[in-house]
Amino acid sequence: MDNSICQVYEDEIQSLEEEIKLLAEKYEDSQQESTFFSDEEILMSIKSFQREFQGQSKGHESPSDLKAQLESLETDLSFLMKFTGIQFTSHSKKTVEKTTNRTVRKHRLSGNCHSLSFQLEFQLLEMQNKETVSAVITDLSIIMESGEDSDVSKFVSSTEEHGNLLTFFRSLSSYAEWYEHRRCTFLHFKVMF
Questions:
Q1: Cα 48 from Cα 24, distance rounded (Å)
Q2: Within 13 Å, how many C-alpha atoms sit on residue 100's CB side?
Q3: Average pLDDT rounded to a whole number, residues 96-103
Q4: Contacts (Cβ under 8 Å, ≥6 apart) of 49
Q5: 47, containing H or E segment
Q6: Which residue has the higher pLDDT, 155 or 61?
Q7: C-alpha–C-alpha distance, residues 70 and 64, integer Å
Q8: 172 and 118 Cβ atoms separated by less than 8 Å
């Protein structure tokens, strides 16, 4: 096992050395290219870039544009909360590990879906290969107030095992809606008798 760990480190060192070599070559190329331009041409390019950048940033930073974007986002969020019944009450994120091509973040979420509350804790492993980024959920832990319902406990255990958050939220939304209907129905019959 020690040899395999050493091999992994050696491979990583070799990869980093190759990356350093490529960056050094790019730097030398850019240095040579810049010598072909006069100081005046370089300054004109910089000023042109700054004007273009300032024009773009001014267009996005106008208070009325930001206010309109915020109102649109709030409307969308309100619609989603009404549609799904899911309302997040807190979220925290902490970076556990970060390398050049791999990031691990720990997330904690809590919220309500209709009258059921839930808490989630999971790690999100993001791996970057050249042009693509892939994300995998690990160490998913779900805490729900399901009472004595064994079906919910089985569902939660299965979801934790497979790490599928989309299935969890879809099922939670449907289950919580019907749970609320059942609760109201039983309350109605309690009042009658």
A1: 28
A2: 7
A3: 87
A4: none
A5: helix 39-60
A6: 155
A7: 10
A8: yes
pLDDT-based confidence at 107, cuts 50/70/90? very high
Q: What is the pLDDT of residues 19-52, one digit of tens each?
A: 888 877 777 666 554 445 556 666 666 666 666 6
CA–CA distance, 92 with 106 (Å, rounded to integer): 8
Q: Which long-range contacts (CB under 8 A, 24 or more apart) does 102-111 make?
A: 102/126, 102/127, 102/128, 111/86, 111/87
What strand order describes the sheet that includes 132-144?
Answer: 86-98, 102-113, 116-129, 132-144
pTM of the full structure? 0.56
- C-alpha dihedral (163, 164, 169, 174), degrees to nearest 10: -110
Dig out the tokens for 63 from the structure.
């208070």
Give the count of alpha carbons within 13 A of 83, CB side only: 8
Give the pLDDT of residue 29: 64
Task: Please indicate whether residue 42 or residue 10 has the higher confidence score (pLDDT).
Answer: 10
CA distances to 38, 129, 188 from 146, rounded to whole Å, are 72, 41, 21
Q: What percent of the chain clears pLDDT 70, i.e. is strictly above it?
A: 78
